[in-house]
Amino acid sequence: MSLPILPHFILLLLTAGFAFFWQNNPELSQYSLQLSALLLAIFLFHNLLGRRKIPNISFIKYQSISNSLTITLLLLLLVLDTGGLTSPLFFSLDFLLFGLSLLFNPGLGLLVGLALSLLFLLNNSLIDLNSLTNLISLILMAPLARFFGTQYLRLLEGQKQIKVLQNQSDQLEKDLSKEEGVTLLWLSLNFYNIMNQTLDLISQISSQLSTIPYYQREKLKTIYADLKELFKSGQELKDKIDKISDEN
Q1: How far apart are CA 224 and CA 227, in angstroms?
Q2: Of 85, 181, 227, 245, whose CB count within 10 A is highest?
Q3: Which of 242, 184, 225, 12 is nearest to 113 (CA)?
Q4: Cβ atoms of 82 and 106 closer than 8 Å
Q5: How many Cβ atoms from other residues are within 10 Å of residue 20's Cβ?
Q6: Are 202 and 224 in contact (CB under 8 A)?
Q7: What is the pLDDT of residues 28-63, one digit of tens each?
């Protein structure tokens, strides 16, 4: 659950702007670690409270957005307080961009990455190779995060389509199984009734064998014997079908 990309980006941009404003103010920057600890405590408490609360769509949407803002502010405060572009924690911003792209919107990671690159460029001087390398890596990481976010969404869509096809296949198999059972039951009942009527008819004809020529009587006896065997096989088939139907 997330906001449309533009409102979410504006909120993240304001959060990033607040982090740079805090760090550029000498009276506030000395409390950066304390603020970071407070944000971490709020993040943990907020998610712990969310686990105990009965989840609903509105709360999940609010929680996901507030988590993204809290983590963004926390990481920026730590990076800025430990050296900005030369910070040993600068790589954590790459994970931030990937998280925004994968969990919210691929374009969000791209926009935030470019915005952070501009803010760092305006607030820091490229005094050494390390600063330049970190800035370039952040710029390059923005489209890369967008690419992986797009691929991740395609993978999720593919999995959803596979699940839909599997459900349709299972339903079709159940329908075919039911139709097959009904068809077999219909065939068994009709076969039994027709064969019974045929044997009864031949039995009646056999009672008048004296009026039938000899060679026809022999054929009639042969047909009658064959039909009795066929009737016996049909009866066995009917019993098997009834047994399968009872098991299902």
Answers
A1: 5
A2: 85
A3: 12
A4: no
A5: 19
A6: yes
A7: 888 888 898 898 888 888 777 766 666 666 767 777
